[in-house]
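Retro notes
What went well: the complex prediction finally ran end to end.
Inputs used:
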Amino acid sequence: MNPPTIVFLSGKGGTGKTSVTAAFAVLGGHQVLADADVEAANLHILLAPRVEEQGEFEGSKVAIKDDSLCTRCGECREACRFEAIDEEFNIDPWLCEGCGACVHACPVDAIRLEPQVTGHWITGTSARGPFAGAELLPGEENSGKLVTLVRQKARQIASRVETPWVLVDGPPGIGCPVIASVTGVDGAVLVTEPTVSGLHDVERALGVVRHFGAPAALVINKWDLSPATAERIESWATERQLPVLARIPYDPAVPRAMVAGKSVVETDPEAPASRALRDAYARFRQLVLG
Amino acid sequence: MRRRGPLLMILAVASGKGGTGKTTVAVGLALALSETRPVQLLDADVEAPNAHLFLDVTWTGERRVVTWRPRIDPEACDLCGLCVEACEFGALARAGEKILVFDELCHGCGVCRRVCPRDAITEIEVPLGKVQVGEADGFPFARGVLDVGEATATPVVHALKREIDPDRLAILDCPPGTGCPTIASLRGADAAILVTEPTPFGLHDLKAAVSVARAVGVPAGVVVNRDGIGDDGVLRWCEEEGIPVLARIPFDREIAALYAEGRNPARESATFREAVLAALAGLEREVLA
């Protein structure tokens, strides 16, 4: 039987997704782990996996034109819907979507599509279990496809080893990489903070999670930075029938642990954040494994 | 002494890591500058647009952003499969006597319609998101919003950037990350403020953000937000790389509490206001000179 896959999301960045994922990984002991935040991959900083396999990722194609064949007829420019071809018929690789409309439109076959390396993936072993991750090369496209690749690697590993679950540290936002992270998961942990932006964005993230039919639970991180807003988020969660795993207090021990390259539950198990994370983990375990 | 005219036309406020304080800095700058200089604020974080939460906005207009999806006429289709072959995104597949369209994989490029020899494909318009324009606290404000469940944020960013007023300093609150929506926001900016926090996560993602800014040729300086919470890795790295640190904003529970309730610290904290203005002055002096 396939172990359940759980993704950690937030909508808004910087609410503590990675710190919560790492804490659950430490408390979980041994399991398959994946970092799907391929544009700002940080989980490896806390889990220090030893790399065993790695590879390049060809995520997209880009149109290349042979100027010696080009007759400047302009068909390509007309065909391109991404405004990637200028008045001089130069192709802008940043705007090129790699769709090939120009290739099909060109009457003299002057344009071809070439695959681009857009990222790197790794698999390896951390002290908390097997690890799969990837990083998009800065400025490249198609982070969604790279997320899908990371999840495939994690699933392959999970089919070979004993693991209670696969924990996936997800990206912020609600777009392409988030959709790739949430498709087909068995559950989502939404990590938010008690700010107007935290609530606004977690609401959108919950929309995406429910759009894909996955059950979700909420962690309110740094709750005491604004108890009144935390209260508002809790009543919002109740209205939306979203279980709250725990409120975690703002705790300077968390960035201190990060500087040490560890999770706060390891470096400072009696810190207020660590106690709250243990409560959150116990409820999480109960919800996922029964 | 008054300057002769702004050196800066488009200023991007960006970061690799989310939640470092981009929106606080972008909104704070717009508020602090609006008394002395014509500014405009654009929220390009279309997946998680938050700037309006800190402003008193009156919306005056709204435009839908759309894309296209193919629909296949089964009467006209002879199942030749040329469309399936031509689609670079795997959005079409043949299943028995039918061509299936996977809307969520479609990029709306129109290649399938172009290659269909029997004109069996038409395209329908589908909504992706919207651009809203309005007035906020004495300056023009616009934001892009991606619809929940949609994947492609970039067209919404492009549509938003058409609202840039060339007679004002346009401040763009960019999405986090290093992918397409970030590139779409950053490109064409005259300079960027990269907001980070002094932690290993902040440093790791700042390095990626600096690579992106370099790749698209936008000169950048760094603002260290929540100074004091972590270590000096960011400062050391910026020094090694010769990247100017424009301002350091100390971590302050009071600023965090203001932000939590939707109040921008530029209105209530002189320290914060001075820090963002110093960052802009530093950017004009060190990066654009």
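What we learned: Chain A has two domains: 5-48+127-289, 60-117.
What to try next: split runs per interface for comparison.
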